[in-house]
Each structure stands twice: as structure tokens, then as C-alpha cells.
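Hypothesis: this fold can be encoded by more than one sequence.
Test: take the C-alpha cells below, design a sequence, compare later.
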């Protein structure tokens, strides 16, 4: 088993990336963050920069010189930098292809030249598309229905090819619906963040479609745990592994939970037309993650939402 000391996290100032940086520094690793701050926030890693635990390279994964600088003397890579918005991917597919596909290929090539020992890629359950059986396991044939999903699947394939043809140990982790502190609050953010932001202003959640669509909501700390387990056990090179909770929740259930927790029982969700590229049903089979990584999610949706609401829902005019 390799002993790593210096680790690169692309997108390390972003939502998931910054939580991973927190954990890696706690574990005693030296961390390099490569981030262009398209969606990342300097505040997320500021304390680590002050302490000297983290080195920041402000740059882009599609710029070779930025990547070469960031990957110097790095033992392992966590590649989280990406445009993750389905709506934005439909509006600007060329941009998403450049960042998510070309950026991954640029990083893989640089990792090979830099003799990186382990490369973990943040993929997405979106690659599965609409499925005919639930829960979704890794044997389910990918069938992406958005340009975002296509980009994530293409990057996965590049990772697999670099493992099989060049000997770079790569692992793709297919995240399901990640939520938690630091999630962006713009129009492309996750449904939980959007619901909470509206509840803060005493406004009802907006649901696109009939609300019966299902999702597997996994807390960011559990996602980080899966990444760290992969680094430590170094199993599954060339594979893809689901990271979720194996629990199914409808959007209606989610909205009602949040309304109840926020103490605004009179509010009722507002329903609008379904959005393009949205998957109907999705939740994970995590047996492979359990067996290969020893992964077991610890934070239930109820507990995770309660933790978020304690810090995020303070209604205006209270």
C-alpha cells in the first residue's frame, strides 16, 4: 500500500472539495488546492491557508501550466473541479465539455507524467439516466439524458482508459445527491439548498414536476468519508463505485420534512412544470462501496436536515 503525503484537490474551495480539504488536513496530509473560483469560495479554505496546511494554486484544470504547477510532487489526486449544473450544461454544452471532459483529460495526462500514484474522480449518478430497476447498482448501463451527464460519463471513460492502458490507478466515485453546509445558493444549487433558502424568507418550496420523483440524498461528510476510505485502502483501480445512502426520498417528502422542521406548517409547496434533463427516479445500491471501501453512511437525512436547519433557517423579521 502506498504512503501518500502530498495530495491535490481540484475544486478544493468548492462545496464538496472544501470539506474534503478539511478532512485531509485533519488526517495530517499536505494539501494543494487548484481552483478557479467559478463556484468555489476562498472563505471555505481560508483558515487552512493561514495555517500553512494548504497551498493554493489559483487556476483552471483546462490550462496546462496551472495543472503542472499544482501537481508538482503530488502523490494522489482528488479531481472534483467541474461544472455540476444540469441547466447550465444544457445552456452551454461546449463550456461544460471543456471543463468536465477536456479538464479531466488534461489532469490525467499531467498525473501520468508526474508519477501520481492514485487518482480519484468525482463522477455522478446522472450518468445512469432513466433506469428500469431500483436501486441502481454499478452494472446498470449508463444512459445519460443531459449534456452534464454525458460529460461526466466521458471523463469516467478517460479515467478507465488511463488505468488500463497507462497504469495510472484511477477510481470513479458516482455521487448521488450531495447536500450539506457550504452548498452554493444560486439558481443552479441543489434542491435542499433551494428549499431552505426559500423557507428562510417565509416562502414555500418550488417543486418542478409532481414531486413524486425520488432521490438519494447523501450528506457531504459521508461523501468525504468515501473518498478518504478509497485513498487509504487503494482498491478498485479502474472501477466506478456508487456513493449514496441506499435510501429513497421523494421531493414531496423532502419538502414536507423541511417545512415541518422550520416550523412553518401553513406553507404548501408550489408546483411548476418539470425541467429538462431531470431524472425521474434515482437511488443507490451501495453494496460495492461497502465491500470494496468499507463505506457505510452515518448521517441520516433527518439528522442532516436538522443540522442544516440549525444554522441556515432563521426567518427574516424574526
Amino acid at each position: 500500500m502506498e504512503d501518500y503525503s502530498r495530495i491535490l484537490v481540484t475544486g478544493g474551495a468548492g462545496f464538496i472539495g472544501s470539506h474534503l480539504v478539511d478532512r485531509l488536513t485533519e488526517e495530517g496530509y499536505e494539501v494543494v488546492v487548484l481552483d478557479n473560483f467559478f463556484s468555489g469560495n476562498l472563505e471555505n479554505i481560508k483558515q487552512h491557508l493561514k495555517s500553512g496546511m494548504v497551498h493554493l494554486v489559483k487556476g483552471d484544470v483546462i490550462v496546462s501550466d496551472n495543472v503542472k504547477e499544482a501537481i508538482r510532487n503530488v502523490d494522489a489526486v482528488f479531481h472534483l473541479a467541474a461544472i455540476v449544473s444540469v441547466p447550465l450544461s444544457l445552456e452551454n454544452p461546449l463550456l461544460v465539455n471543456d471543463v468536465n471532459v477536456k479538464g479531466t483529460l488534461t489532469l490525467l495526462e499531467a498525473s501520468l507524467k508526474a508519477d501520481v500514484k492514485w487518482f480519484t474522480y468525482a463522477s455522478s449518478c446522472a450518468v445512469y439516466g432513466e433506469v428500469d430497476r431500483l436501486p441502481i447498482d454499478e452494472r446498470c448501463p449508463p444512459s445519460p439524458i443531459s449534456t452534464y451527464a454525458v460529460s461526466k460519463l466521458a471523463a469516467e471513460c478517460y479515467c478507465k482508459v488511463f488505468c488500463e492502458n497507462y497504469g495510472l490507478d484511477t477510481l470513479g466515485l458516482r455521487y448521488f445527491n450531495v447536500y450539506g453546509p457550504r452548498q452554493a445558493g444560486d439558481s443552479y444549487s441543489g434542491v435542499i439548498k433551494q428549499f431552505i433558502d426559500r423557507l428562510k424568507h417565509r416562502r414555500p418550496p418550488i417543486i418542478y414536476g409532481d414531486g413524486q420523483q425520488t432521490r438519494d440524498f447523501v450528506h457531504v461528510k459521508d461523501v468525504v468519508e468515501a473518498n478518504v476510505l478509497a485513498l487509504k485502502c487503494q482498491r478498485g483501480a479502474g472501477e466506478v463505485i456508487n456513493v449514496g445512502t441506499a435510501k429513497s426520498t421523494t421531493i414531496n417528502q423532502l419538502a414536507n420534512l423541511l417545512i415541518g422542521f422550520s416550523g412553518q406548517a401553513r406553507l404548501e409547496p408550489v408546483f411548476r412544470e418539470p425541467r429538462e434533463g431531470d431524472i425521474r427516479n434515482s437511488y443507490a445500491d451501495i453494496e460495492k462501496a461497502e465491500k470494496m471501501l468499507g463505506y457505510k453512511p452515518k448521517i441520516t437525512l433527518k439528522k442532516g436536515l436538522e443540522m442544516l436547519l440549525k444554522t441556515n433557517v432563521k426567518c427574516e423579521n424574526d
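The chain has a mean pLDDT of 94. The CA atoms of residues 251 and 264 lie 17 Å apart.
Hypothesis status: open.
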